[in-house]
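tl;dr need the bound structure. longer version: we got a ligand (FE2/S2 (inorganic) cluster) that a collaborator sent over and nobodys looked at where it sits. i said id run it. heres the input, straight from their email, havent touched it
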Amino acid sequence: MGRVDAEHYSTTLIDHFEHPRNAGEMSDADASAYVTNPVCGDSLRLFLRIESGRVIAASFLSSGCPATIGTSSAATELLPGATVEEAEALTREDYAAAVGGLPRSKLHCSVLAAAAVRNALAGWRARVEPERDSAG
Ligand code: FES
């Protein structure tokens, strides 16, 4: 249990960084998204399994800083069980809170998780609800 708190990461974030949950590709994902932060180059690929309008599993691959990896890992624990609407409503503040908060200089890192979830679910909706507008 090394102390890696030079940037005042919470112990929860350090635990997620050192022991990422649900890390890896998901071969049978129903939704996925790839997002990058053009400023620092951090990236996140998120995979979701969705059944009956509910997220039932999530996994991720990330190349990035501890805050990106930590919030991505926490997101994969936060999402299962949520309805698609509940998952869409989660904000970067929710992902930051899930790791016990982030240092001010790292607040932007939680944007990747929020953007990946939103993009993955938008793609999923576009596939399963293609006639929504025209049926309206
Ligand atoms: Fe850029 Fe973390 S340093 S997302």
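gonna send this back to them w/ a short note. The longest strand covers residues 54-63.
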